[in-house]
TrEMBL record:
<dbReference type="InterPro" id="IPR059052">
    <property type="entry name" value="HH_YbhG-like"/>
</dbReference>
<keyword id="KW-0812">Transmembrane</keyword>
<keyword id="KW-1133">Transmembrane helix</keyword>
<feature type="coiled-coil region">
    <location>
        <begin position="150"/>
        <end position="181"/>
    </location>
</feature>
<keyword id="KW-0175">Coiled coil</keyword>
<dbReference type="Pfam" id="PF25881">
    <property type="entry name" value="HH_YBHG"/>
</dbReference>
<feature type="transmembrane region" description="Helical">
    <location>
        <begin position="12"/>
        <end position="31"/>
    </location>
</feature>
<keyword id="KW-0472">Membrane</keyword>
<protein>
    <submittedName>
        <fullName>Biotin/lipoyl-binding protein</fullName>
    </submittedName>
</protein>
<feature type="domain" description="YbhG-like alpha-helical hairpin">
    <location>
        <begin position="83"/>
        <end position="199"/>
    </location>
</feature>
Length: 328
């Protein structure tokens, strides 16, 4: 091999070595390690709307994605059984009220007049019986009539006296109406029937499903016409004003993630927008969440902690399910 060829190979090899050396130097100077990240997920308060009574979905008043206010009617149930019970309760209340009115009012005017006339009639008969007894008593004292006649006249007088008292009592009862206890019992029946109406009425109101919070309808479960049971969920409402981020962090990576700490997070879905988050809750996720098992002496089971952090300010565009990243 000629000296020129050997010299060319040496120069080429030397050049390659120099290039590799320069690349290594530049890489060492300008290379920055990729920061390790932990990933969390945004969550929000979610409330299920359900009814106390069974029925069929008659109509939805909102769709998924609609915003509702607290107290808005979102769906209507058709429950014929509840309406039938409500009509029965109303009829029972009306019947109890009629009986109570009768007890409070007492007898009719015609009945009062009849009892009064009967009393007056017995008063007249009593007056005649009293006069007859007085005359017979005088004759008896003068030995004109026998004791038998006198006893008969006295017995007739006493009988008429009892009849007059009975007729008077009948008139007083017709005039005064029912006894106090009867009136109270009738009023109690009215209150009982009214309570039944209110109870069934509350179930009737439950056929109109109301949103318990202000928020966004995130999901509807049944379709119009489907039967739903007591307590069956009909739809969900998201409260986007009450949001937080949950991180599952290995304990040796917790670092500055301590109670009350404020740190910076990044939201990829919002062009890596920076947000300030405050740690409000930390919880051990249990042994089932161990990161790795112990293998040799000196190692330990690294537990995973659930860290809940709340944005210090409202983040526009942040929605449940979006990822939030934190650099370690």
């Amino acid at each position: 091999m000629s000296e020129k060829k050997v010299s060319g190979k040496v120069l080429m090899f030397t050049g390659i070595v120099i290039i590799i050396f320069l690349v290594a130097i530049f890489g060492f100077i300008f290379w920055e390690p990729v920061p390790e990240m932990i990933q969390g997920e945004a969550e929000a308060t979610e409330v299920r709307i359900s009814g106390k009574v069974p029925g069929r979905i008659e109509r939805f008043l909102v769709d998924e994605g609609d915003h509702v206010m607290k107290g808005d009617t979102v769906a209507i149930l058709d429950s014929p059984e509840v309406m039938a019970k409500f009509n029965q309760a109303q009829a029972a209340e009306e019947a109890a009220q009629a009986l109570s009115d009768k007890a409070q009012k007492g007898a009719r005017e015609e009945q009062k007049a009849m009892a009064f006339q009967t009393w007056k009639k017995t008063q007249a008969a009593l007056d005649v019986a009293k006069k007859s007894f007085d005359r017979v008593q005088t004759l008896f004292e003068n030995d004109v009539v026998s004791a038998q006649k006198r006893d008969e006249a006295e017995a007739n007088y006493k009988a008429m006296l009892a009849t007059e008292q009975a007729a008077k009592a009948q008139y007083e009862m017709a005039r005064n109406g029912a006894e106090k206890e009867d009136k109270q019992a009738a009023e109690a029946q009215v209150n009982r029937a009214r309570g039944a109406v209110e109870e069934v009425g509350s179930y009737v109101k439950e056929t109109f499903l109301i949103s318990p919070i202000s928020g966004e309808i995130s999901e509807r479960y049944p379709k119009v016409g489907e039967l739903v049971g007591t307590g069956s969920p009909v739809m969900n409402v998201l409260d986007l004003e009450d949001m937080w981020v949950v991180f599952n962090v290995r304990e040796d990576l917790l670092g500055d993630l301590q109670m009350g700490a404020v740190f910076t997070g990044y939201i990829p879905a919002l062009n890596n927008k920076e947000v300030q988050l405050k740690v409000t809750h930390m919880k051990n996720m249990g042994t089932y969440a161990a990161w790795r098992a112990t293998k040799t002496t000196g190692q330990y089971d690294a537990k995973t902690f659930e860290v809940k952090a709340v944005p210090t300010e409202k983040v526009e565009g942040l929605r449940p399910g979006m990822s939030v990243l934190k650099k370690l």
